[in-house]
Amino acid sequence: MNDENNNQQKPGRKRGLTSVALQWLADKMRRTERIKEELQRGTYQVDSSKIAEAILNGDSQPKH
């Protein structure tokens, strides 16, 4: 083995499904808390463009 092979950068570690799911859940919880706080203060404003985009993209998933 030579030093050139040892000095090559290894590709970054791929994130597992569990860490991706946990990141998504943490982000969702932070957004929920922010919205709750804004609702209590009376400063929450709906983003109409995001709602319209969700409707147009068919983001409605069946509820169980």
Total DSSP helices? 3
Class computed from helices, strands and strand pairing: mainly alpha
| N to C succession of SSEs | HHH
Shape: extended
Secondary structure: number of strands: 0
Oligomeric nature of the chains: single chain
Query: Are there runs of 5+ residues with pLDDT below 50, and where?
Result: none
Helical amount: 55-70%
Major sheet attributes? none
Strand content range: under 5%
Task: Write a structural description.
With 64 residues, the protein is an all-alpha fold. The protein has a domain at 16-56. It is 61% helix and 0% strand. It contains 3 helices and no strands.
Give me a quick take on this structure.
The protein has 64 residues and is an all-alpha fold.
Based on the model shown, name its key terms:
64 residues; mainly alpha; 3 helices; 0% strand
Give the helix/strand layout:
Layout: H1 3-7, H2 17-41, H3 48-56
